[in-house]
Amino acid sequence: MFSIWIVARCIIAWIFLKQGLIKADKINHYWFYPEGFVFDEPNQNISLYWDALHYVAVYETCVNFAFCPPKTEKGRYTAEYDEIIIPLKSINDKEFLINALKELSNDCFDFSDQRKK
Question: How far apart are alpha carbons 36 and 22 in whole angstroms?
Answer without folding.
Answer: 28
